[in-house]
Amino acid sequence: MKLNLTLNGTPRSADVPERTLLADLLRDTFGMTGTHVGCDTTQCGCCTVHVDGQAVKSCTMLAVQADGCTVTTIEGLGADGLHPVQQAFSQCHGLQCGFCTPGMVMATVDLLRRNPKPTPEDIAEGLSGNLCRCTGYVNIIRAVQQASQVMQGDKP
Amino acid sequence: MNAPLSSALLRKEDQRLITGTGQFSADAHPVGLLHGHVIRSPHAHARIARIDLSAVRSAAGVHLVLTAQDVQAAGFADLPNAVQVKDPQGQPQAVCTMPVLAHDKVLYVGQPVAWVVADTALQAQDAAELAHIDYDTLDAVVTYADATAPGAVQLHAQAPGNTSVKFEAGDRAAVDAAFAQAHYVSDIDVDSQRLVGSPMEPRAVWAWHDEAKGITHVHTPTQGVGGMAGFLAHITRWPHESVEVHTHDVGGSFGLRGTAYSEHLMVLLSTRQLKRPVGWVGSRSEVFVSDWHGRALRLHGHIALDAQGRILAMRFENQVDVGAYNVYFSTHIGARNLSITMGGAYQVPALHMSSHIYFTNTVPVSAYRGAGRPDIAYAIDRLIDHAAQQHGLDGVAIRRKNFIAPHAFPYTTANQTVYDSGHFEAVMDHAIGMSEPQGLAQRRADALQRGCLLGRGLAYYLEASGPGGAAKDQVRGSFDAQGVLTLRALTGASGQGHETSFAQIVQNEIGLSASAVRYLAGEPEQGLVGNSTGGSRTLYGAGSAIKNLCQQLMDQAKPAIAALWACDTANISHAKGEWQEMSGAKRRLRFADWIASLGAQAAQVQAVGEATSGATFPNGCHIAEVEINIASGVAEVSHYWAVDDVGLVISPEQVLGQVHGGVVQGMGQAFGEHVIYDRETGQLLTGSYMDYPMPRAGGLLRHFHHETHAVHTDLNLLGAKGVGESGCSGSLPALANAVSDALRQVGAPPMDMPFTPAKLWAAIQAAPGKP
User: B25-138+200-252+257-288: which CATH topology?
Assistant: First the structure.
């Protein structure tokens, strides 16, 4: 089935079987392998991307459902250098192995769009659909707080 | 304190990982890649009556179908068992190794039976559904009681009673004598339940065969390419030099990525037969039933004390569930790792343990973060806490009285392990001092106001880091024409940040900017000896080799510096990467400046550093406060204080990150994680993240306070002790002691992990002192 979308600012088209998942389209057809697949039950959030500006778990959306949409993956996030959320994850040591990180970052960007000054409880709830096995989440929550401050114009 | 890395990012690894440009094994899409799919057993225990794969073979896109017969024809060995032990009568352990593909029987749900290769992953999956395999099902046993009951169904003909071995360590007679004269005795059952390790990257492998050179190149997550290559060569029986393993980024490991699995072997065999690249990427559902499981240990501990509260003896009777087969490290865990530190940080004159290593119809068990050491640390400090409570003694005072004293090192335990250093009382006092003990009564009262029972638990753990299987650790260092130092070794990272820590060691030793140092571990590195990452040993193992390398680089440069200054080499010395002329002009020159001055000649500067480093003894004191909501049974960790003696710290941020991660993995085990099999059918009931409660971002370490307390070690050149497994070793007993303390306030007895809301609520409801 044919589909057209805007991926990281570039119009793209593909012809894929109907059952193709968006995550697989991004990874296998378009080579955007920063979108990771960590589970098959929509629990881990490693595959989180933005579809029309909203965070979506791309393993749970058919590729054809993204027809006509604007999709942003981790590769397209910091077009002009690193996004403050990416920087904060590194500076606060919010990643170790880095496998969950693209999904965490994409979920965080959407969380801060909806709630620019989240409390630690808001962050925990907002990221409860993203699993990390390395960090214990402590520094992830710090990273989101730092990114929030930077994006509000405060110094971290 | 080390100088920070000169970058806006904390770690050298981070740039690629935060931008999605890392290279995980499933990210490669080589031209012509074919996709494998495993046909797995749907039954826990069955005879394979008939296999008909004709429809699979003729399905669209299918290139190859393999069964046990093909594995046999290829001459592959079974997956190996790392160590074999004997029982006290000298009878060797019954070792039942796992076949790459099942032949006549299947012994657990998910066991690989056949393998399909097709053009696409979907075609391979579709084809697999056309398999006709007739199974004659047998009874399944998934618990100790069922597996060892008289008349229980037998998994292996050579293992009567489903027993691999009844191993013993220590001095039974001495322990019996000590118990006979004890003033106080106590015992407690401690369960360290079966877990899935669950690194976030599902296991993956792809390979291609270079016909011209006769080398199969394997790309897969590992803890070190040398270890994986060794296992693959052993199982395939191919010449060692014909298998090269490449590892790029690894999405977590925790012990699970160090060994070869059936899928690796299937990919290797397929790529050689088809002369095409072949890959496999596990789904999470598959890795739940195929990554080796962890823990699965039940320890029954006994303690004997004299009238003054001095420990006379400890005894542990252990039930060690290895799953369906002996794979890799399960015996090592149940025999060695439970025994080497079974006195913990305490002076215990007599020790004895028995481990009944037995089979069940479940996924085989191997190493998971700590591999038996957190489990015994948990049991020791639960036992001491329980004894103190039972006999009205002060738990802190008992620990203080029984710690191995600082002047007693080197200290040889009753099990003949030699600890080199430690100052346990000082570390405990450090932790207690941090932990706001004076506010406890108020916090308990405040918690009760909120409808919560507040329990406080203290634990002192000591663990032995990995001695390493390789004789030494080597690191090759070579400069390029731009003066960048490339380090190559065999220990591979899966989140620990080797690239950053190693660069920091170089920076500390010879003043070379960390940005001018890179580390490569994922390339097949013929000619170097070294250990994989595991047992918390990489920092001091490979790190010591890097320190030696730096020394060699300085020595190597000395004649050149002398020539530059036209002076005798005896007249120059160096410290911290800077040479100094001792008399005369007293000139100075930094190593970094000298390398830069060489230009293209820098490429001639190289050396192989090496070090021999055995086990170390990281230890520490963790204190937890847990609030249990009386109405719901939900437990939350309200405060957590930890002081760890991990020796020298190179990267404080990464040490803290390791502690966070380890403590939260301990919290996962304490409050939720539990692999559950149906007792009748042997079906896995917790086969996805919907059923298996992984720790999530909410309600975790809200008030976490951590400090290090380094006690010097001479056991390695660097002076580090390792930190990777400290967090889970300290958190299991601290959290369990806290929960027991909370339950005791209402008169409820101790319970097994996981402390789920349902169990806690029911215990509080049934307690005599229910509020």
Answer: Aldehyde Oxidoreductase; domain 3 (3.90.1170)
Q: Is the ipTM of this complex over 0.95?
A: yes
Cis peptide before B410 (omega within 30 of 0): yes
* Four-way CATH pick for A84-151: 1.10.1090.10, 3.40.50.150, 1.10.150.120, 1.10.1060.10: 1.10.150.120
Looking up tokens 């190597």, which residue turns up?
B556
**Nearest CB to A131 within list B11, B200, B699:** B200
Equal fold, B293-465+615-766 vs B469-611: yes
Q: Is residue B525's pLDDT more than 70?
A: no
Selected residues 22-81 of chain A with any CB under 8 Å from a CB in chain B? 27-28, 31-41, 43-44, 46, 73-75, 78
Q: Helix, strand, or coil here: B528?
A: coil
B1 pLDDT band (50/70/90 cuts)?
very low
Predicted confidence (pLDDT) per residue in B238-252, tens digit: 999 999 999 999 999
Contact A95 B17 (CB under 8 A): yes
- For the ranges B6-20, B160-174, B315-329, which has the lowest average pLDDT? B6-20
User: Residue B702 pLDDT > 90, yes or no?
Assistant: no
Query: What pLDDT does B515 receive?
Result: 92
Number of H helices, E strands in chain A: 6, 5
Which residue among A44, A75, A141 sits closest to B697, beta carbon to beta carbon? A141
A121 to chain B, any CB pair closer than 8 A? The answer is yes
Q: Measure in Å the smallest separation between the Cα of A146 and chain B Cα atoms.
A: 14
What's the CATH class of domain B469-611? alpha beta
SS3 string, B219-258, reads: ECCCCCHHHHHHHHHHHHCCCHHHEEEECCECCCCCCCCC
pTM of the model: 0.96
Four-point Cα dihedral B5, B10, B16, B18, nearest 10: -160
Residue that wins the pLDDT comparison between B282 and B586: B282
Distance CA B524, CA B219 (A): 11
Confidence of residue B5 (pLDDT cuts 50, 70, 90): very low
Q: What are B537-552's pLDDT values in tens digits? A: 999 999 999 999 999 9
Domain ranges of chain A: 2-77, 84-151
* Residue contact B27–A27, C-beta within 8 A: yes
The partner residue sitting opposite A90, judged by closest CB among B9, B200, B494, is B9
Residue B323, pLDDT above cutoff 60: yes
Give B219's strand partners: B206, B246
Q: What is the pLDDT of residue B506?
A: 96
